[in-house]
Hints:
By secondary structure, this protein is an alpha+beta fold. The chain folds into 2 domains: 1-35; 56-200, 2-Layer Sandwich (Muramoyl-pentapeptide Carboxypeptidase, domain 2). 30% of the residues lie in helices and 12% in strands. The chain contains 4 helices and 5 strands. The longest helix has 34 residues, at 2-35. It is globular, with a radius of gyration of 24 Å. 30% of the residues are buried. Residues 7-34 have low confidence and may be disordered.
Amino acid sequence: xxxxxxxxxxxxxxxxxxxxxxxxxxxxxxxxxxxxxxxxxxxxxxxxxxxxxxxxxxxxxxxxxxxxxxxxxxxxxxxxxxxxxxxxxxxxxxxxxxxxxxxxxxxxxxxxxxxxxxxxxxxxxxxxxxxxxxxxxxxxxxxxxxxxxxxxxxxxxxxxxxxxxxxxxxxxxxxxxxxxxxxxxxxxxxxxxxxxxxxxxxxxx
Length: 205
């Protein structure tokens, strides 16, 4: 009887381990699904989506002078930045830091759509508008270029193929531009010389 009892206890222990392991396997996907961006919601307050200026005077009033400390005072980390295999930080003005870093970046991540982003992704740059002596919106930290390799200046349409090789249509522009549920950036595709990669937080400039 002692031997029978020992064998029975061993079988019960093995069965208990099997039940515990099965329960753990069933639990892990649920935990993973609940964990991904479960904490995040859009911030459409005036801090998350601040008033968008119109014209140079209003731009300076809200963003400060060009090439200032504030102009590159906020940053966010992007899955592709300077190349298709190179992630990195994109810098913008603190005035729109929460909109870019918290709203837009997290919006894309929460949608499991990082693959829709393609290189290069660029923000602050202390430079003139090409071919002029007028300061670029990038010099104020008020603009971001994204998916620029596939969307050069002068191209009159948006190429939605992301770094994953899938055509995501106008998903990326829809996240950046317009009012709610967009994030209020003005799209450079609407310039007289179209610039589909370009999104700026100022109009009439």
